[in-house]
Design brief:
This protein is of the alpha/beta class and 355 residues long. It is 32% helix and 16% strand. Strand 9 (271-275), helix 8 (286-298) and strand 10 form a beta-alpha-beta unit.
Length: 355
């Protein structure tokens, strides 16, 4: 065999050998592996619901022409920065849906122009805005206790992690009313709730709508408390005697309904903060109603009460006042409405409802 033939023969042998050789498992390429990125932690935010009748709804004027009642009140109280109440407090966001006696329509929740709401186009869907004046009745001319409460809590939150207020209140509402007004619910003799009432038909679904808005903003809502100011319409011996029981049933319902977003997923950890009704010749024996409210507050460590009446300390200047400037015979004046909100805020802070 000549040299050229020998080289060709060797090359052929090498080619045939390579065709019959398979790579060993150790020589096969291994797929690349990567450690999955951890899910980003969702920011928890504190949520408070505000409900009741007209003094919670907000029937207090904050100014009249050039008379700035609110700035004067805040200055008299020794605070500054009254301008934030007009500019808006971005650390505390509010969504409201309120109406007066007989103005709610369960068949037309979004279209009723008599409803005062932060979402003026789809009222029942809710809309959060920085808390400021004008979140009461009167198309922006009135304020409620949410203002003083937001003012008192603003340094405990931030624009990146705000506190959220959800307010659904109804002027003149009670547990036992007649006429066209929807009531707060009262169980019947069989323990059933009425088909249509302020809690199930209006407050609960409105709260749910707003919780979805909060989640859509990228936050995890934590239900911290329910702020309540109601009872004027339930004064009178027969209704007053049933008040604590009826209120207790509804608070238990609220705590059960929102247990899944309560601290430690336990509805018992949701605070309930009640406000005594103020003195007025309009109410029948407010002392008796406030005694019922105090009894209910004393029944549970997570129930609290704002003494708007000046009873506990027996100091007249502690009493919140109706009348001028800013109020009328049934509604708080400007300073008292603001102080009521601050009192709610102090209870929230002092009892760890922001932790």
């Amino acid at each position: 065999m000549n040299k050229k033939a020998l080289v060709l023969s060797l090359m052929a042998s090498m080619f045939l050998a390579s065709c019959g050789t398979k790579p060993t498992p150790s020589s096969e390429p291994k797929p690349e592996t990567s450690v999955p990125e951890p899910e980003p932690e969702v920011q928890e935010v504190n949520v408070f619901v505000l409900s009741g009748q007209s003094n919670m709804e907000g029937n207090t004027s904050y100014k009249n022409g050039d008379n700035d009642y609110l700035t004067t009140a805040i200055t008299d109280l020794g605070y500054d920065e009254a301008n934030v109440c007009y500019d808006g407090i971005p650390e505390v966001l509010s969504s409201t849906y309120c109406a007066g006696y007989g103005q709610l329509n369960h068949n037309n929740l979004n279209g009723n122009s008599q409803v005062s709401a932060t979402n003026t186009e789809n009222r029942f869907e809710g809309k959060f805005v920085p808390t400021k004046v004008g979140l009461g009745t009167g198309n922006g001319s009135k304020m409620g206790p949410e203002l003083g409460c937001a003012y008192g809590l603003r340094n405990f939150a931030s624009e990146d992690a705000p506190i959220f207020f959800i307010k659904m209140a109804s002027n003149g509402s009670g547990f036992e009313q007649s006429g066209t007004q929807y009531n707060w619910p009262v169980k019947d003799a069989d323990g059933n709730w009425p088909e249509i009432n302020l809690y199930h038909t209006f407050a609960k679904p409105f709260i749910d709508n707003n919780l979805k808005l909060i989640e859509g903003m990228g936050y995890k809502p934590v239900m911290r408390g329910w702020l309540w100011h109601q009872g004027e319409s339930d004064t009178g011996s027969a209704k007053t005697a049933k008040y604590a029981e009826r209120l207790g049933d509804m608070v238990e319902l609220f705590r059960n309904d929102f247990a899944d977003i309560a601290p430690d997923q336990d509805g018992a950890n949701i605070g309930f903060i009640d406000g005594m009704i103020c003195e007025s010749s309009t109410w029948t024996d407010p002392d008796k109603m406030n005694a019922e409210k105090q009894k209910f507050a004393d029944s549970n460590d997570m129930n609290f009460i704002v003494d708007t009446y000046g009873n506990e300390a027996k100091i007249p200047e502690n009493e919140l006042k109706t009348g001028n400037p800013g109020g009328d015979s049934m509604h708080y004046n400007t300073k008292s409405s603001f102080r009521l909100g601050m009192a709610y805020a102090n209870i929230i802070i002092d009892n760890g409802l922001l932790d």
